[in-house]
User: Which sequence fits this backbone?
């Protein structure tokens, strides 16, 4: 992989990670296009390329940390304080931030367990880009529906085990290219009754441990096998940095549109992209 290819893929990840149109789908299509144009990078379903995808996903976690730094700092600080109070018996039970932290871990656990069970199936999908017609259309329809939902009544404290599991299941589905992780988890939160702000914040905060864990597991698998041959550490670092910078701006844009219930804009784009793939415009390329 060249450094220019790493920059392009980092931009694709940074822009589309938070825009609810599936960054993985766009990475897969972009990689197939590059290979068709003569690139000698590994195929999208190869362990090294999947690791690259996860590394640029980790880059966008930096974007989350920047945009949600106040919420993240408050959650960690207050969870730690409540834990100390509970351990010192100055509190009768877990506080609200401890419960929220625990629900986040439950969401990640559901995703992790199901992701490991279905890992082989999901990796095969990376080699079959035409499945994107179905998954992109599903995401488009769901985004359009969420804009038409009435005002949601529930705050962040309403997140309990059932809602945490539901969002964990949605996040598992996002392992399939074409299903946007941010989109499907926000959608799940909205359907469960969460206000738009809290559906977004919960979605992006649980992304941090989820993506870090997936990257660690994939990294172990790659280095036990053939390593990162065909990609290289330098391009991975460049992709990481570019994704972090571009992702920060993309996240701010998505939040502005989400709060105004304007995600239907992305529904139109997804339908058009699904039609391009479905009518064979890219046949012979992907």
Assistant:
């Amino acid at each position: 992989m060249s450094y220019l290819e790493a920059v392009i893929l980092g931009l694709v990840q940074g822009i589309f990670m938070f825009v609810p149109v599936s960054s993985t789908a766009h990475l897969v299509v972009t990689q197939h296009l590059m290979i068709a144009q003569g690139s000698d990078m590994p195929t999208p379903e190869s362990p090294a390329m999947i690791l690259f995808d996860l590394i640029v996903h980790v880059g966008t976690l930096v974007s989350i940390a920047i945009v949600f730094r106040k919420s993240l700092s408050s959650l960690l600080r207050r969870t730690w304080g409540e834990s100390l109070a509970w351990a010192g018996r100055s509190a009768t039970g877990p506080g609200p931030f401890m419960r929220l932290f625990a629900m986040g871990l439950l969401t990640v656990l559901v995703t992790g367990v199901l992701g490991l069970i279905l890992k082989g199936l999901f990796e095969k999908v990376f080699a079959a880009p035409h499945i994107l017609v179905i998954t992109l259309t599903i995401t488009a329809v769901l985004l359009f529906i969420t804009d038409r939902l009435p005002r949601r009544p529930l705050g962040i404290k309403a997140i309990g085990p059932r809602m945490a599991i539901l969002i964990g299941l949605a996040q598992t589905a996002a392992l399939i290219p074409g299903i946007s992780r941010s989109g499907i988890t926000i959608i799940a939160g909205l359907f469960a009754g969460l206000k738009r702000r809290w559906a977004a914040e919960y979605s992006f905060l649980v992304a941090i441990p989820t993506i870090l864990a997936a990257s660690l597991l994939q990294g172990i698998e790659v280095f036990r096998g053939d390593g990162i041959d065909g990609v290289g550490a330098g391009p991975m670092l460049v992709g990481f940095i570019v994704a972090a910078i571009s992702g920060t701006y993309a996240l701010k844009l998505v939040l502005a549109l989400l709060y105004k219930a304007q995600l239907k804009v992305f529904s139109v784009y997804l339908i058009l992209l699904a039609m391009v793939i479905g009518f064979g415009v890219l046949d012979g390329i992907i």
Summary: Residues 196-224 form the longest helix (29 residues). The CA atoms of residues 12 and 21 lie 11 Å apart. Residues 3-278 form one domain. The two ends are 18 Å apart (CA to CA).
